[in-house]
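User: Hey, my collaborator sent me this sequence without any context and asked if I could get a structure. I don't really work with proteins. Can you help?
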Amino acid sequence: AFIYGPLSQAMMDGGCLFINELNRIPESSQNVLLSALDERTLIIPKLKTISAKDSFLVIATQNPSAHVGVSALGEALKDRFVWLHVDYQTEAEEVDIVQNNLDSKSPHSLTHARIAVMIVRESRKHPDIRRGASIRAAIDLAQLAQTYGEPGPGFWRESAIMALHSKIELADGTDRNAREIIIEIVDKVLEHFQ
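Assistant: No problem. I've predicted the 3D structure and written it out in structure-token form, which is a compact way to encode the shape of the chain:
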């Protein structure tokens, strides 16, 4: 029995295929995608040839090429996409996103979300950090804070190290380690809440 996958189903329905982390898919899958994008057809041997409906489209994301486990996309495949820069949400939107991932019954959920978002946003503009933390780090940090009640500065420092350490990339040439930088960021943010 053959089960139609996301690509074939999107082509037949004229829908949108969303591919997260395109540069992590194997080269053989990239080749199948290339024919679907280029000729708008997909040949399934001994079964059928699918012609994409006019409304079929593909949206894909990719990780920076410096990440482990990514492969270079072929020029032919890259040529089939239009590049869009998507920036971070506003601070208020990020606070809403983080708060939506917390227990709404907690009396401190807004404060936890605000502190976590401020810490993450500071990591994005710190001179010793090449790539700051994403909203995922803010969610992780706020969830840690919510789990342990009304934390003090020491808790925020250690929790921020746990939540951000693997989600930031230090700038070349810095003589500081991630722990020191994260503690500096947390202390700066906590000054606003005293």
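In plain terms: Strands lie at 16-19, 41-44, 48-51, 57-60, 129-131, 169-170. You can pass these tokens on to your collaborator as they are.
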